[in-house]
Amino acid sequence: MDAIETILTRRSIRKYEDKKVPAEVVKALLDAGMHAPTARNIQPWHFIVIDDRAILDQLSIAHPYAKMMKQASLAILVGGDRNLQEVEGYIIQDCSAVTQNIMLAAHAYGLGSVWLGMYPREQRMQDVGKILEIPEHILPVSLISIGYPTETVKPPVRYKEERVHFNKF
Amino acid sequence: MDAIETILTRRSIRKYEDKKVPAEVVKALLDAGMHAPTARNIQPWHFIVIDDRAILDQLSIAHPYAKMMKQASLAILVGGDRNLQEVEGYIIQDCSAVTQNIMLAAHAYGLGSVWLGMYPREQRMQDVGKILEIPEHILPVSLISIGYPTETVKPPVRYKEERVHFNKF
Asked: How far is Cα A102 from Cα A100, in angstroms, rounded to an integer?
């Protein structure tokens, strides 16, 4: 799929087919994520690939906005290693660019996905962290629910002239 | 350009031709940015498009890693409105996804770009904020230097098996 079309037509998708995502596609999504730029090129990211039905079900309850994970065949948690990148603000930016790459790649592969916020919600980070056994030095930034879509969402018109400033705010 | 190819071949580009970016391409980059997902779909983003030579030169000195902006014909500052989104951590994530979309779109349009970190560096936020007259309620997250590339950087091999965990960390 064309890059610009992929960017403009990606939507949050919460309804999925009961169909596994092939291992090579999962790897391609992770590789796309790893190609995001990171502050000082430190690449502090870690990924937890979740395809175990029981764990997906647990997450669908533990995270307040993850009900759709009852149907998702895949989820990816993106986090950053505090021992590699000590600046928390950079971990957030790095992992967010990673997350966006994964979601765009998912769309290009015919998958639907939705970004579930983790950071800075302490309760979610703790509850999801417990299920996935995330150690203290890994900061969980996002949880992505992924599957083959059974819904289509119209691309939005988003351009807002009033948010664009020229040379000075 | 194909989406996956765009993601995998985008690199930080710091050397540019002395050539303006057409207004319709600038608008397409901003539109790509605005299509990034945002927490609760609040879309708190603001953009400052900088193409004034004198201001680009000022920025190249004010930001410690912006020397390449002496050659760049364009820069885009991405920031978020604290009055629209009160959770600072969400503004960072939103604006980072926006920044990544802009950089991918730039690459797809044959442009090169590099992400210059702003947040959470107080000095940079203050110095750049002064030049661009950014008000208090706008949190500046990233500054993107953009131009037609005169360098090519080889796509990296990034996949790290040891950063991928299955179902539990």
From this structure: 5
Assigned domain for B124 exists: yes
Neighbour tally for B70: CB within 10 Å: 14
Residue A4 lies in a domain: no
CATH number at A49 reads 3.40.109.10
Residue of B nearest to A81 (CA): B163
Measured between CA atoms, how close is A62 to chain B, in angstroms? 15
Q: What's the confidence (pLDDT) of residue A151?
A: 95
Our CA-based measurement puts residue A19 at a distance from the nearest CA of chain B, in whole angstroms, of: 18
Q: From first to last of the 169 residues of chain B, give the pLDDT tens digit.
A: 999 999 999 999 999 999 999 999 999 999 999 999 999 999 999 999 999 999 999 999 999 999 999 999 999 999 999 999 999 999 999 999 999 999 999 999 999 999 999 999 999 999 999 999 999 999 999 999 999 999 999 999 999 999 999 999 9
Is there a contact between A145 and A69 (Cβ–Cβ < 8 Å)?
yes
Place of tokens 């993106």: A78
User: What domain range is B92 assigned to?
Assistant: 13-152
The answer to whether residue B157 sits within a structural domain is: no
Is residue B79 assigned to a domain?
Answer: yes
| Residue A121 CB neighbour total at 10 angstroms | 17
Q: What pTM value is reported for the model?
A: 0.98
Distance CA A78, CA A40 (A): 19
Q: Under an 8 A CB cutoff, do A48 and B156 touch?
A: no
Q: Is B31 helix (H, G, I), strand (E, B) or coil?
A: helix
Give the pLDDT confidence of B110-153 residue by residue, as tens digits. 999 999 999 999 999 999 999 999 999 999 999 999 999 999 99
Give B158: exposed, middle or buried? Use CB within 10 Å, 0-12, 13-18, 19+. middle
Q: Where are the alpha helices (DSSP H) in chain A?
A: 3-9, 23-34, 53-62, 88-108, 122-131
The DSSP H or E segment spanning A90 is helix A88-108
Nearest to B120 among A35, A89, A169 (CB): A89
Residue type, A107: H
Select from B30, B99, B169 the Cβ nearest to the Cβ of A138. B169
